[in-house]
Protein backbone atom coordinates (compact mmCIF):
# COMPACT_ATOMS: atom_id res chain seq x y z
CA UNK A 1 0.00 0.00 0.00
CA UNK A 2 1.48 3.35 -1.01
CA UNK A 3 1.49 5.95 1.77
CA UNK A 4 0.48 8.80 -0.52
CA UNK A 5 -1.78 11.33 1.20
CA UNK A 6 -4.74 12.19 -1.01
CA UNK A 7 -5.86 15.27 0.95
CA UNK A 8 -2.82 17.16 -0.34
CA UNK A 9 -4.24 16.96 -3.89
CA UNK A 10 -7.77 18.14 -3.02
CA UNK A 11 -8.84 21.77 -3.50
CA UNK A 12 -9.17 23.50 -0.15
CA UNK A 13 -12.72 24.75 -0.78
CA UNK A 14 -13.81 21.20 -1.55
CA UNK A 15 -12.34 19.90 1.70
CA UNK A 16 -14.40 22.51 3.54
CA UNK A 17 -17.61 21.68 1.70
CA UNK A 18 -20.50 20.04 3.57
CA UNK A 19 -22.25 17.41 1.45
CA UNK A 20 -26.01 17.68 0.84
CA UNK A 21 -27.59 14.87 2.83
CA UNK A 22 -31.08 13.62 2.17
CA UNK A 23 -32.30 12.52 5.62
CA UNK A 24 -34.57 9.80 4.26
CA UNK A 25 -31.73 8.27 2.24
CA UNK A 26 -29.47 7.77 5.22
CA UNK A 27 -32.04 6.46 7.71
CA UNK A 28 -34.21 3.36 7.82
CA UNK A 29 -38.03 3.62 7.99
CA UNK A 30 -40.76 1.01 7.84
CA UNK A 31 -43.64 2.82 6.18
CA UNK A 32 -42.84 6.54 6.21
CA UNK A 33 -45.21 9.38 5.36
CA UNK A 34 -43.06 11.45 3.06
CA UNK A 35 -43.64 15.16 3.65
CA UNK A 36 -40.04 16.30 3.66
CA UNK A 37 -39.12 17.04 0.05
CA UNK A 38 -42.01 19.09 -1.39
CA UNK A 39 -42.88 16.27 -3.79
CA UNK A 40 -46.32 15.59 -5.17
CA UNK A 41 -48.19 12.71 -3.52
CA UNK A 42 -49.35 11.70 -7.05
CA UNK A 43 -47.65 10.06 -9.99
CA UNK A 44 -45.40 7.09 -10.65
CA UNK A 45 -42.16 9.05 -10.47
CA UNK A 46 -43.19 11.56 -7.83
CA UNK A 47 -40.28 10.76 -5.50
CA UNK A 48 -36.72 11.97 -5.78
CA UNK A 49 -34.23 9.21 -6.53
CA UNK A 50 -31.97 7.75 -3.84
CA UNK A 51 -29.11 10.25 -3.63
CA UNK A 52 -26.81 7.57 -2.20
CA UNK A 53 -27.49 4.96 -4.93
CA UNK A 54 -27.61 2.28 -2.21
CA UNK A 55 -29.22 -0.53 -4.16
CA UNK A 56 -27.10 -0.38 -7.29
CA UNK A 57 -23.90 0.15 -5.31
CA UNK A 58 -24.65 -3.01 -3.32
CA UNK A 59 -25.28 -4.93 -6.53
CA UNK A 60 -22.07 -3.68 -8.14
CA UNK A 61 -20.21 -4.39 -4.94
CA UNK A 62 -21.35 -8.04 -5.06
CA UNK A 63 -20.58 -8.38 -8.74
CA UNK A 64 -17.08 -6.89 -8.49
CA UNK A 65 -16.30 -8.09 -5.00
CA UNK A 66 -15.42 -4.61 -3.76
CA UNK A 67 -16.88 -2.62 -0.86
CA UNK A 68 -19.81 -0.37 -1.83
CA UNK A 69 -18.00 2.45 0.03
CA UNK A 70 -15.47 2.31 -2.79
CA UNK A 71 -18.08 2.78 -5.52
CA UNK A 72 -19.68 5.99 -6.80
CA UNK A 73 -22.38 6.26 -9.44
CA UNK A 74 -22.50 9.14 -11.89
CA UNK A 75 -24.65 10.47 -14.70
CA UNK A 76 -22.45 8.61 -17.16
CA UNK A 77 -18.71 8.51 -16.63
CA UNK A 78 -18.75 11.94 -18.29
CA UNK A 79 -20.15 13.41 -15.08
CA UNK A 80 -17.54 11.59 -13.01
CA UNK A 81 -14.72 12.98 -15.17
CA UNK A 82 -16.11 16.48 -14.64
CA UNK A 83 -16.46 15.97 -10.87
CA UNK A 84 -12.97 14.52 -10.48
CA UNK A 85 -11.48 17.57 -12.20
CA UNK A 86 -13.51 19.89 -9.97
CA UNK A 87 -12.38 18.07 -6.82
CA UNK A 88 -8.67 18.15 -7.53
CA UNK A 89 -7.90 20.93 -10.00
CA UNK A 90 -7.63 24.54 -8.95
CA UNK A 91 -8.99 26.68 -11.84
CA UNK A 92 -6.34 28.69 -13.71
CA UNK A 93 -3.60 26.94 -11.75
CA UNK A 94 -3.54 23.17 -12.15
CA UNK A 95 -3.13 21.12 -15.29
CA UNK A 96 -4.28 17.67 -16.36
CA UNK A 97 -2.38 15.18 -18.45
CA UNK A 98 -3.97 13.01 -21.11
CA UNK A 99 -2.73 10.76 -23.87
CA UNK A 100 -2.86 11.89 -27.48
CA UNK A 101 -4.91 10.64 -29.21
CA UNK A 102 -7.43 9.79 -26.50
CA UNK A 103 -10.96 10.54 -25.31
CA UNK A 104 -11.57 14.24 -25.91
CA UNK A 105 -13.83 14.82 -22.90
CA UNK A 106 -10.91 14.94 -20.43
CA UNK A 107 -9.64 18.07 -22.17
CA UNK A 108 -13.15 19.44 -22.60
CA UNK A 109 -14.02 19.33 -18.88
CA UNK A 110 -10.55 20.53 -17.89
CA UNK A 111 -10.96 23.56 -20.16
CA UNK A 112 -14.37 24.36 -18.68
CA UNK A 113 -12.70 24.36 -15.26
CA UNK A 114 -9.91 26.56 -16.70
CA UNK A 115 -7.19 23.95 -16.31
CA UNK A 116 -4.55 23.55 -18.97
CA UNK A 117 -4.33 20.25 -20.80
CA UNK A 118 -1.00 18.54 -21.37
CA UNK A 119 -0.88 15.93 -24.11
CA UNK A 120 1.32 12.89 -24.02
CA UNK A 121 1.93 11.82 -27.61
CA UNK A 122 1.50 8.06 -28.11
CA UNK A 123 4.02 6.19 -30.28
CA UNK A 124 3.27 4.49 -33.62
CA UNK A 125 1.71 1.52 -31.77
CA UNK A 126 -0.37 3.93 -29.69
CA UNK A 127 1.62 3.06 -26.58
CA UNK A 128 2.99 5.54 -24.04
CA UNK A 129 6.73 6.19 -24.10
CA UNK A 130 7.69 5.96 -20.42
CA UNK A 131 10.52 8.47 -20.82
CA UNK A 132 8.11 11.04 -22.26
CA UNK A 133 5.70 10.41 -19.40
CA UNK A 134 8.41 10.87 -16.77
CA UNK A 135 9.69 14.04 -18.45
CA UNK A 136 6.32 15.71 -18.88
CA UNK A 137 5.26 14.96 -15.30
CA UNK A 138 8.60 16.13 -13.87
CA UNK A 139 8.46 19.42 -15.76
CA UNK A 140 4.77 20.30 -15.42
CA UNK A 141 3.44 18.53 -12.28
CA UNK A 142 -0.05 17.82 -13.64
CA UNK A 143 -2.64 17.09 -10.95
CA UNK A 144 -4.53 14.33 -12.79
CA UNK A 145 -3.46 11.81 -15.41
CA UNK A 146 -6.30 10.43 -17.52
CA UNK A 147 -5.18 7.03 -18.75
CA UNK A 148 -7.74 5.52 -21.06
CA UNK A 149 -7.40 1.75 -21.45
CA UNK A 150 -8.57 0.32 -23.80
CA UNK A 151 -7.99 3.68 -25.39
CA UNK A 152 -10.58 5.53 -27.44
CA UNK A 153 -10.08 6.07 -30.41
CA UNK A 154 -7.07 3.76 -30.89
CA UNK A 155 -8.68 0.62 -29.41
CA UNK A 156 -5.58 -0.82 -27.71
CA UNK A 157 -5.19 -1.53 -23.99
CA UNK A 158 -2.18 0.29 -22.53
CA UNK A 159 0.72 -1.86 -21.27
CA UNK A 160 2.05 -1.73 -17.69
CA UNK A 161 -0.56 0.62 -16.24
CA UNK A 162 0.85 0.14 -12.74
CA UNK A 163 4.04 1.94 -13.78
CA UNK A 164 2.09 5.16 -14.45
CA UNK A 165 0.10 4.95 -11.23
CA UNK A 166 3.23 4.29 -9.19
CA UNK A 167 5.18 7.12 -10.80
CA UNK A 168 2.58 9.85 -10.76
CA UNK A 169 2.46 12.38 -7.95
CA UNK A 170 -1.24 13.10 -8.28
CA UNK A 171 -4.46 11.33 -9.18
CA UNK A 172 -4.47 8.69 -11.92
CA UNK A 173 -7.84 8.05 -13.54
CA UNK A 174 -7.86 4.79 -15.47
CA UNK A 175 -10.85 5.02 -17.77
CA UNK A 176 -12.04 1.49 -18.49
CA UNK A 177 -15.15 2.29 -20.53
CA UNK A 178 -14.26 -0.61 -22.88
CA UNK A 179 -12.70 -3.05 -20.40
CA UNK A 180 -15.37 -5.73 -20.87
CA UNK A 181 -14.28 -6.17 -24.50
CA UNK A 182 -10.67 -6.79 -23.50
CA UNK A 183 -8.99 -9.83 -21.99
CA UNK A 184 -6.70 -7.52 -19.98
CA UNK A 185 -7.24 -7.27 -16.23
CA UNK A 186 -9.07 -4.31 -14.75
CA UNK A 187 -7.04 -1.81 -12.72
CA UNK A 188 -9.64 -2.26 -9.94
CA UNK A 189 -7.32 -4.84 -8.43
CA UNK A 190 -4.69 -2.12 -7.92
CA UNK A 191 -6.98 0.04 -5.78
CA UNK A 192 -5.82 -1.42 -2.47
CA UNK A 193 -2.22 -0.67 -3.36
CA UNK A 194 -2.63 2.86 -4.73
CA UNK A 195 -4.84 5.42 -2.96
CA UNK A 196 -4.23 7.88 -5.83
CA UNK A 197 -6.07 5.61 -8.30
CA UNK A 198 -9.61 6.07 -9.63
CA UNK A 199 -11.04 3.53 -12.06
CA UNK A 200 -13.97 4.51 -14.27
CA UNK A 201 -16.37 2.07 -15.89
CA UNK A 202 -19.72 2.58 -17.55
CA UNK A 203 -23.07 1.03 -18.42
CA UNK A 204 -22.90 2.78 -21.80
CA UNK A 205 -20.87 0.25 -23.77
CA UNK A 206 -20.93 -3.50 -23.02
CA UNK A 207 -24.06 -3.09 -20.87
CA UNK A 208 -25.88 -1.43 -23.78
CA UNK A 209 -27.31 1.46 -21.79
CA UNK A 210 -25.74 4.63 -23.23
CA UNK A 211 -29.16 6.31 -23.18
CA UNK A 212 -29.60 5.76 -19.45
CA UNK A 213 -26.38 7.62 -18.49
CA UNK A 214 -24.92 5.53 -15.71
CA UNK A 215 -21.18 5.55 -14.98
CA UNK A 216 -19.22 4.08 -12.10
CA UNK A 217 -16.11 5.21 -10.26
CA UNK A 218 -14.07 2.86 -8.07
CA UNK A 219 -11.63 4.46 -5.65
CA UNK A 220 -10.60 4.75 -2.01
CA UNK A 221 -13.39 5.50 0.45
CA UNK A 222 -11.91 8.98 0.87
CA UNK A 223 -12.18 9.81 -2.83
CA UNK A 224 -15.66 8.28 -3.09
CA UNK A 225 -16.79 10.50 -0.18
CA UNK A 226 -15.45 13.53 -2.05
CA UNK A 227 -17.39 12.55 -5.17
CA UNK A 228 -20.57 12.21 -3.09
CA UNK A 229 -19.83 15.62 -1.56
CA UNK A 230 -19.59 17.51 -4.85
CA UNK A 231 -22.14 15.73 -7.03
CA UNK A 232 -25.63 17.13 -7.58
CA UNK A 233 -27.82 15.48 -4.92
CA UNK A 234 -29.99 13.61 -7.42
CA UNK A 235 -27.47 13.15 -10.19
CA UNK A 236 -28.83 9.83 -11.48
CA UNK A 237 -32.57 9.61 -12.09
CA UNK A 238 -34.79 6.79 -10.77
CA UNK A 239 -35.54 5.35 -14.22
CA UNK A 240 -31.85 4.93 -14.98
CA UNK A 241 -31.05 3.54 -11.54
CA UNK A 242 -33.84 0.98 -11.97
CA UNK A 243 -32.73 0.05 -15.48
CA UNK A 244 -29.13 -0.47 -14.41
CA UNK A 245 -30.28 -2.41 -11.37
CA UNK A 246 -32.47 -4.71 -13.52
CA UNK A 247 -29.66 -5.30 -15.99
CA UNK A 248 -27.38 -6.31 -13.13
CA UNK A 249 -29.93 -8.99 -12.23
CA UNK A 250 -29.79 -10.28 -15.77
CA UNK A 251 -26.12 -11.05 -16.21
CA UNK A 252 -26.87 -13.71 -18.84
CA UNK A 253 -28.27 -11.14 -21.26
CA UNK A 254 -25.20 -8.97 -20.71
CA UNK A 255 -22.90 -11.94 -21.32
CA UNK A 256 -24.75 -13.04 -24.45
CA UNK A 257 -24.67 -9.57 -25.97
CA UNK A 258 -21.00 -9.18 -25.10
CA UNK A 259 -20.22 -12.54 -26.69
CA UNK A 260 -22.15 -11.52 -29.78
CA UNK A 261 -20.19 -8.29 -30.13
CA UNK A 262 -16.91 -10.15 -29.64
CA UNK A 263 -17.72 -12.72 -32.30
CA UNK A 264 -18.89 -9.97 -34.68
CA UNK A 265 -15.56 -8.27 -34.04
CA UNK A 266 -13.80 -11.45 -35.22
CA UNK A 267 -16.11 -11.71 -38.23
CA UNK A 268 -15.49 -8.09 -39.24
CA UNK A 269 -11.76 -8.46 -38.80
CA UNK A 270 -11.80 -11.39 -41.25
CA UNK A 271 -13.96 -9.48 -43.74
CA UNK A 272 -11.66 -6.45 -43.59
CA UNK A 273 -8.86 -8.62 -45.01
CA UNK A 274 -10.63 -8.69 -48.37
CA UNK A 275 -11.33 -4.96 -48.60
CA UNK A 276 -9.16 -3.15 -51.13
CA UNK A 277 -9.48 0.37 -49.74
CA UNK A 278 -8.17 -0.63 -46.30
CA UNK A 279 -4.49 -0.06 -45.60
CA UNK A 280 -4.31 -1.20 -41.95
CA UNK A 281 -6.63 -2.42 -39.22
CA UNK A 282 -5.15 -1.59 -35.82
CA UNK A 283 -5.40 -4.26 -33.12
CA UNK A 284 -8.36 -3.65 -30.84
CA UNK A 285 -9.35 -4.50 -27.27
CA UNK A 286 -12.60 -2.57 -27.62
CA UNK A 287 -15.93 -2.74 -29.49
CA UNK A 288 -14.56 -0.67 -32.34
CA UNK A 289 -11.79 -0.67 -34.92
CA UNK A 290 -9.45 2.12 -35.86
CA UNK A 291 -8.81 1.63 -39.56
CA UNK A 292 -6.35 3.32 -41.86
CA UNK A 293 -7.66 3.68 -45.40
CA UNK A 294 -5.87 4.54 -48.61
CA UNK A 295 -8.21 7.53 -48.93
CA UNK A 296 -10.17 7.90 -45.67
CA UNK A 297 -12.03 11.01 -46.75
CA UNK A 298 -13.46 9.25 -49.78
CA UNK A 299 -14.44 6.21 -47.67
CA UNK A 300 -16.02 8.35 -44.96
CA UNK A 301 -18.25 10.20 -47.42
CA UNK A 302 -19.11 7.07 -49.43
CA UNK A 303 -20.29 5.45 -46.21
CA UNK A 304 -22.21 8.58 -45.31
CA UNK A 305 -23.96 8.59 -48.72
CA UNK A 306 -25.20 5.14 -47.71
CA UNK A 307 -26.27 6.46 -44.31
CA UNK A 308 -23.55 4.50 -42.54
CA UNK A 309 -22.20 6.81 -39.86
CA UNK A 310 -18.64 6.34 -38.71
CA UNK A 311 -16.22 8.49 -36.74
CA UNK A 312 -13.79 10.54 -38.77
CA UNK A 313 -10.42 10.60 -36.99
CA UNK A 314 -8.41 12.30 -39.76
CA UNK A 315 -6.56 14.63 -39.95
CA UNK A 316 -5.48 14.05 -36.27
CA UNK A 317 -4.81 10.39 -37.08
CA UNK A 318 -3.96 10.47 -40.77
CA UNK A 319 -6.37 8.59 -43.02
CA UNK A 320 -8.09 6.87 -40.09
CA UNK A 321 -11.74 6.21 -39.34
CA UNK A 322 -13.14 4.63 -36.18
CA UNK A 323 -15.93 2.14 -36.79
CA UNK A 324 -17.79 0.30 -34.06
CA UNK A 325 -19.05 -3.25 -34.23
CA UNK A 326 -22.75 -3.53 -34.94
CA UNK A 327 -25.22 -6.38 -35.41
CA UNK A 328 -24.50 -8.83 -38.26
CA UNK A 329 -26.97 -7.07 -40.56
CA UNK A 330 -25.31 -3.71 -39.95
CA UNK A 331 -21.83 -5.16 -40.30
CA UNK A 332 -22.82 -6.72 -43.63
CA UNK A 333 -24.09 -3.35 -44.88
CA UNK A 334 -20.76 -1.80 -43.94
CA UNK A 335 -18.75 -4.51 -45.67
CA UNK A 336 -20.92 -4.35 -48.79
CA UNK A 337 -20.32 -0.63 -49.20
CA UNK A 338 -16.60 -0.93 -48.43
CA UNK A 339 -16.33 -3.59 -51.15
CA UNK A 340 -17.53 -1.09 -53.73
CA UNK A 341 -14.79 1.45 -52.95
C1 LIG B 1 -13.09 6.34 -23.00
C2 LIG B 1 -14.46 6.81 -22.70
N1 LIG B 1 -14.75 7.21 -21.46
C3 LIG B 1 -15.97 7.64 -21.14
C4 LIG B 1 -16.96 7.71 -22.09
C5 LIG B 1 -18.29 8.27 -21.69
O1 LIG B 1 -19.03 7.28 -21.13
P1 LIG B 1 -20.45 7.61 -20.48
O2 LIG B 1 -21.45 7.30 -21.54
O3 LIG B 1 -20.50 6.68 -19.31
O4 LIG B 1 -20.47 9.04 -20.08
C6 LIG B 1 -16.71 7.30 -23.40
C7 LIG B 1 -17.76 7.39 -24.41
O5 LIG B 1 -17.57 7.26 -25.57
C8 LIG B 1 -15.42 6.84 -23.70
O6 LIG B 1 -15.11 6.47 -24.94
TrEMBL record:
InterPro entries (UniProt xref): Aminotrans_II_pyridoxalP_BS (IPR001917), Aminotransferase_I/II_large (IPR004839), HisP_aminotrans (IPR005861), PyrdxlP-dep_Trfase (IPR015424), PyrdxlP-dep_Trfase_major (IPR015421), PyrdxlP-dep_Trfase_small (IPR015422)
Residue ranges occupied by any Aminotransferase class I/classII large domain in the UniProt entry: 37-337
Residues found modified as N6-(pyridoxal phosphate)lysine: 205
Pfam family for this entry, one: Aminotran_1_2
Cofactors demanded by this protein: pyridoxal 5'-phosphate
PROSITE patterns: AA_TRANSFER_CLASS_2
Reactions the enzyme catalyzes: L-histidinol phosphate + 2-oxoglutarate = 3-(imidazol-4-yl)-2-oxopropyl phosphate + L-glutamate
Any one Gene Ontology BP term: L-histidine biosynthetic process
Biological pathway: Lipid metabolism; Amino-acid biosynthesis; L-histidine biosynthesis; L-histidine from 5-phospho-alpha-D-ribose 1-diphosphate: step 7/9
Sections of the chain in a coiled coil: 244-271
Enzyme class: transferase
Enzyme Commission designation: 2.6.1.9
A Gene Ontology molecular function term of the record: pyridoxal phosphate binding
Gene3D superfamilies: Aspartate Aminotransferase, domain 1, Type I PLP-dependent aspartate aminotransferase-like (Major domain)
Keywords from the UniProt entry: Amino-acid biosynthesis, Aminotransferase, Coiled coil, Histidine biosynthesis, Pyridoxal phosphate, Transferase
Subunit comment: Homodimer.
HAMAP family: HisC_aminotrans_2 (MF_01023)
Family membership noted in the UniProt record: Belongs to the class-II pyridoxal-phosphate-dependent aminotransferase family. Histidinol-phosphate aminotransferase subfamily.
Protein name, per record: Histidinol-phosphate aminotransferase
Amino acid sequence: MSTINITQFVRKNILELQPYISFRDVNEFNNPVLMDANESPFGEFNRYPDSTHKKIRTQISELKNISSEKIAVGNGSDELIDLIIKIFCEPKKDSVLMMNPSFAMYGFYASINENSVLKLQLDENFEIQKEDFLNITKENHPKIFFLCSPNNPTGNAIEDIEFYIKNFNGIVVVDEAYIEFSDKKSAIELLEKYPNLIVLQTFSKAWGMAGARVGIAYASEEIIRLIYTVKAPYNVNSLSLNLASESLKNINEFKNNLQDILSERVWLNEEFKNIQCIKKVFPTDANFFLIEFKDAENVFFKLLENEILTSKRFPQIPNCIRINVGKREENKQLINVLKTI
